[in-house]
Amino acid sequence: MLRVAPGLQAILDLEDRAPDVLFETVPGSSVPLWPQVRNALAVELGRLDFPTAPVGAVSVSRASAWRGLFDAFLPSQWDASVARGQSGLCCIVGGSTVHQVDGRERNWLVSDYAESQRGDAAILQWSGLPGRNGPPAFSRTWTLAPAETRAAGFARLSRRDPEAHIRALVTEYVRQLDVILADEVLESLVVSATYQERSRPFVDHAVARAVDRLAPRVVLMEDASYGGRASILALLRDRGIFVAEPQHGWIGPTHPAYSFGAAMHTEPLRQTLPDEVLTFGEYWSDGLRHPALLTPMGKPHLETATRSAPPIAERPDEVLIVSSIADPAEMSDFVIELREALGGTWGVRFRPHPAERRELGHRYGRLVDHHGVDIDERADVYDSLASAKVVIGVASTVLFEARAFGCAVLARDSAYFDYYVGELFGEPLQSGSGTGRAAANRVQEVAKQANVASIDQRIWAENAMQRFVSWLDART
């Protein structure tokens, strides 16, 4: 069983005590504040548990912001305000879980599910359209991005100022947690929560209008357990709509969005969480404390990709190393040492995390310049896994996906190991200077064990689409 990180344990202990402050609502809000700042607090506590090299934020110029606001009020075929036609299934997603298919952008998280309903489905996504990969592959897709932009504009004109109340609540949360956060961290939490609370009524109104026109019986909502959309969860459930969250990445006992203390299992906090979580398989439910029903569903995109992947015997001797973000310098040392120890018969590819790609030269300059290391820039990680024989990482869903592609998997030892990986992939590779030769020996040893892809049914439930269609029939 994976362990629970100390920072999250402090939050669970607070929720088990269930002080009244967790149930307090900012005047004018529809739900308590706690669910909306809980995840941000957990992230900050997680940074104390697992120090991580920060990835720079993307800045937006004032001119771009004004241009975006102007565009948000222009008519658009993609705007969720024009969404029409009753849809038994509505998927509300972020819009980042996408890949390109025939010049169009397809959402691998929910498109299979939406397509199975033959027109009785719709997708609402928070990111803009058309996307980076072109227009949406699923025609009944609309964006909520203009609604969020308009909401930000309306919020600036609003006289409502909840900052003082939010500051008092957040300060009390931190006091009850008995942790010390830097002043700038606390201020950042307050500013972010205030911004969200001021724009929330306008965003909720836009979502409610779209949902009322589509009239779904079931909503699949990405990140429904994270709390940032707590009021939307509440309004959906108030309408009698069944809300399920499809798993999109790693979850476990130390993931703050999937482990909750006693307070979150009671109303009104419970209404800010989904009715059900659809997991990749039974493995992902181990150790979770979530009030929702946890149902193994599988991952259609994974099943499709593994069926088309070449057999291990036809792949070159190639090792794929996936980034952990945490320590670019240490990761660079490891990759270069492994490259030198493996010699010329093996290929070595390094795959940066998507969030790191805009800073690739800054974070991994030595790897970019190294003639023996290839930088894996493919958009879809499944294309990368389909050509690898061995995969190495620290703490990533990619390690679990690699197993389904028949790759041999090695996890590196780190502060994350007992919380995110455990013993599933055997003895970890030791970290630190001078471990390249030992790692190379392990790579060559485990490569002999790689075989035809055989999906572990406990991690990846089989026949995901058949499961989903039966599940949806039972919910409608």
- How far the N terminus sits from the C terminus, by CA atoms, comes to 35 Å
Tally the structural domains.
2
Helix content: 25-40%
Strand order of the largest sheet: 5-4-1-6-7-8-9
Structural class designation:
alpha/beta
Shape: globular
* Alpha-carbon Rg, integer: 23 Å
Total DSSP helices:
17
Number of strands: 14
Largest sheet: 7 strands, parallel
The pLDDT mean sits at 91
Instruction: Name the poorly predicted regions.
Output: none
Q: How much of the sequence is in beta strands? A: 5-15%
Briefly summarize what is shown.
The chain is α/β, with parallel strands linked by helices and 476 residues long.
Q: What is the fold's blueprint, element by element?
A:
Layout: H1 6-17, H2 34-49, H3 62-72, E1 89-93, E2 98-101, E3 104-107, H4 111-115, E4 121-125, E5 141-143, H5 145-157, H6 163-177, H7 183-214, E6 218-221, H8 230-238, E7 242-246, E8 276-279, E9 293-296, H9 300-308, E10 318-322, H10 328-342, E11 347-351, H11 360-363, H12 365-369, E12 374-375, H13 381-385, E13 390-393, H14 397-404, E14 408-411, H15 417-421, H16 436-447, H17 464-475
Parallel strand pairs: 1-4, 1-6, 4-5, 6-7, 7-8, 8-9, 10-11, 10-13, 11-12, 13-14
Antiparallel strand pairs: 2-3
